[in-house]
Amino acid sequence: MTANLLDLDLEGLAALCERLGEKRFRATQLFRWIHQRGASDFDQMSDLAKSFRGKLGTSARIEGLPVVSRHESTDGTIKWLFDVGDGNAVETVFIPEDDRGTLCISSQAGCAVGCRFCSTGHQGFSRNLTTGEIIAQLWHAEHFLRKHLGTSERVISNVVMMGMGEPLQNFSALVPALRTMLDDHGYGLSRRRVTVSTSGVVPMIDRLALECPVALAVSLHAPNDALRDNLVPLNKKYPLAELLDSCNRYLEHAPRDFITFEYCMLDGVNDQPEHAEQLIALVQQHRRAGVWCKFNLIPFNPFPASGLIRSPQARVTAFARMLADAGIITTVRKTRGDDIDAACGQLAGDVKDRTRVADRMAQQRTIMLKQTPVEAVANKET
Ligand code: SAH
Ligand code: SF4
Question: What is the CATH number of domain 1-62?
């Protein structure tokens, strides 16, 4: 099997070039062809020596992911479903805004954390994505969008690891993908505009701080351990006090001076005034200095198996006001892509039930547009 060059960050590509008897700087040219120009064919790479292209042709390939479906909302939100084999699919969402373009990327097929309110969690865990499968989502989306919008300029300015899966449980594949996003010869994204979202894998938060500090979002969802144990089972392993300590340690390395806490608003479960009060106390107790966190309240995106209901708008607003009155910067995530399928693994869930690729490809033609809203995952603070 030849090496898929999407699996390699620039350092990895340089090592491969050396093994092929080429100078390391050739890797930079190759990397730029792949990521900045979207090339998948070595023959296109006119400034590389023919002999080098020949060697690449026999030992390497540039292979993206097959697209199962693509849906575009009237507000410009685009959602792809990519086939990752064995009946699994992952989703990627592009959210355009006036001043940025955000891509929401998946890190695993399924997820082992099993949060109660998450449809990916309900599907169970299939496997980790490879670095190439993570970066292929960006590679495909960026170059599709340039063609689609008729521009040669960069379209995607922000990446959020908020699709399917727990990125910090796929750390070794995640880090080279992040490096490719950040590399000036790759996508050239600023560290502040690449966000890893985690349910709280404490040791890996510390490793991320050392190996590749980018913006961090932590999915909190509950103000006390008893409730969080129930909603985010990983809390039993890494309880709130440990998690908030690791967030504080992260800030010493982070490109931003705050952590974003995500909080999914569930009717009657975590949205009462006493939950807001506990949350304020928790945040104040763990504050080392100044503004150290911001809250992003997410209206729950319902699915039947969860047995949970979205909090009414008035309750979300009241909750947000309580946090804001306590001096905590709070935003409510807005809804995007209303006319295409739901976020958080629901469309991919439909596909996973069908085990044969032929079925999935048939579904590509027959998937009906659904009415469940997509939640915008844009990183509002950038
Ligand atoms: N595993 C990581 C990243 C992927 S989930 C994490 O948990 O942070 C991205 C975000 O979507 C998380 O904040 C998650 O809690 C939220 N989410 C999951 N299911 C949701 C749903 N049904 N409605 C609203 N938000 C949801
Ligand atoms: Fe996994 Fe995140 Fe879903 Fe929890 S919310 S099950 S960690 S993808």
Answer: 1.10.150.530
